[in-house]
Predict the 3D structure of the following.
Amino acid sequence: MKILQIIPELNEGGVERGTIDFAIYLKNRGHTSMVMSNGGHGVSYLQKKEIAHSQWPVHRKNPWTILKLSFKLRRFIKIHRIDIVHTRSRVPAWIAWLATRKQPCLWIVTGHGMYRPHFFSRIITRAHHFIVATETVRSYFVNTFGIPSPKISIIERGVRLEEFPFRAPCFPTIPTLAMIGRLSPIKGHRDFLTALSLLKKKNILFQALIVGATSDDAYEAQLKQWTLDLNLSSEVQFLGHRSDVSNILKEVQILVLASTYPETFGRVIVEAQASGVCVIATDVGSISKIVEHPKTGILVPPHHPEKLAAAIEEVLTHPEESKNRILAARKKVESFYDDQVMFQKTVQLYETLLTPQKILIIKFSSLGDHLLIVPSVRALRKKFPNAYITLLCDPRFKEIWKFCPYLNETLTFPKKHLKFHWSSLVKKLKEQHFDLSIDFQNTFWTHWATYLASIPKRYGYARKNGKYWLTHALSETTDSSKMPPVEHQFRILQELEISLEDPSLEFWPSPENESPFKNLCEQEGLNFSTPYALIHIGASWPTKRWHPPHIANVCTYLQDRGFQIVFSGENQDQAFLHEILSHRTFAHISLLGKTNFQQFSTLIQHSALVISPDSAACHLAAAFQRPTLALFGPTDAAKHRSPSPNLRTLQEATDCGPCYRSTCWHHSCMVQLKPSRVIQTLKEMQPTL
């Protein structure tokens, strides 16, 4: 997988450290891991680990900047073929939403804050999926933003336990207290300083560390002035940004998190608990899910520095109870907050989301072409055994797929309505919420419809400006244009890492069709104890039909060798049959226009020999592995032949062919294909002839 994480800045903080650690985890497991931010102290660490970092101003809320970066990110996604864009803040979310629309990649958001429900925050509802750390946060986003529950996954966050080794708890005469995190008003530094002043008035000894950088120098200056005003300058140190949080925690006895705004997690709490540090925190957001008051720590209400001071005093004056809390907290961290578990769950979620749940296959025409996509449908089912696979086709061909074990559903839409009623098709596709489409029809209208239906991944050939509407558009090459049909389809499937292992065709006749079919044959005088040769004379183009006198000669030859002669085709082929019979008289059975497709398939299934022009009959015979001779004229046999070991093809080389013309005044390609050559091939196929 190729994953791009986007975060405003890479300075200290739980979100930033988690982003860096996850990027390293992905790289170590063979994935392509990239990070995008406005820079910060963590960039050098990524570079040491040889993880690509792109420094863009993804922290700026300027609408024009967001728009420009979205176009830039769209190009970045295409160039690097990104599978997942994972954003961890709202400005990156806006950029990602604009960039990933109609793109093949997925956009995932992790909620690192309990955002207020204003316009700027509602962009998160557009993400393909949403990750939160606790059930509390999930309920908040469901109830406040209306995000459907299935679109939200709960993945508890964690820390690298080996980086935060546990030390036996102890409380020296002058204990050290710490607040660790970015300097921001919502982190409650003023309440912490006020609580410390209350402790000092009680002559309680302590040292305090305030660790973290700020993007607001004025706020930092205010805190330092407040420290002076409270007469705490000898007890409190401002350490600024520190990358060695684990080393700081080794010297700390109490960690205070005095947040005034709901926290979605609080990574530093888990780091402290892992290190053997007692935690006191405000009861906001999901903190109560991490700190079980009073078992693993102490919770106090926000904006109450006097209660915060009382909690600190309780920890210091009751060391045995505090040590028990520390031991219980470490045990919980080991069970629930190992970052390897978090990373593993996130990767599993990625893989699940990248595996399409609903797949659309598009094929409108023709009957033979439907049979030729069977290997592709079968391979897709093997690749995605749990996916819901739907075939979109013309209503005329729905019957073919009625008993197919590889499809879940057949969706119909008249091919003749594509050009003028495409909006109806788009509406129908949108309602289905497909994850992926494979266009075997490859027309402008089918490409256009899947694009407008917002199907995230759209595969096909780049015909008819398809490269603009498909996310995975294959270029047609000279070699690929001459490929047999099944191989040609699998060039598309190779983009999904599906290789051609089994090119054989299949068909699934109705289990209830055998008896009515035999009744029909008895009425027409067909004797099942005698082998019959099926001569299919139907064709989509008149130019595909073999020359009538030639057909008559071969039929006479076959009859002399004990075959019953059965003609198949449509009712409109009656005139062509009369022309054949005008050249020679022989016994025959005509089933022209008398069979439906299921009965026709049974007719082929029981035949001893099939002779047909380039038509669906050849492909159906290949599906049943019947001995078949296909006679090609205006179409290329190498390109259109069925994949079957029992199929032989004949085609005369002419100066004008293969021409792919449906009309022709001289019809030389079929006239020059002589009966003698056909008979010789039949002898090679069946030596007894």
User: Anything to note?
Assistant: The two ends are 58 Å apart (CA to CA). The longest strand covers residues 32-37. Residues 63-80 form the longest helix (18 residues). The chain has 28 helices and 25 strands.
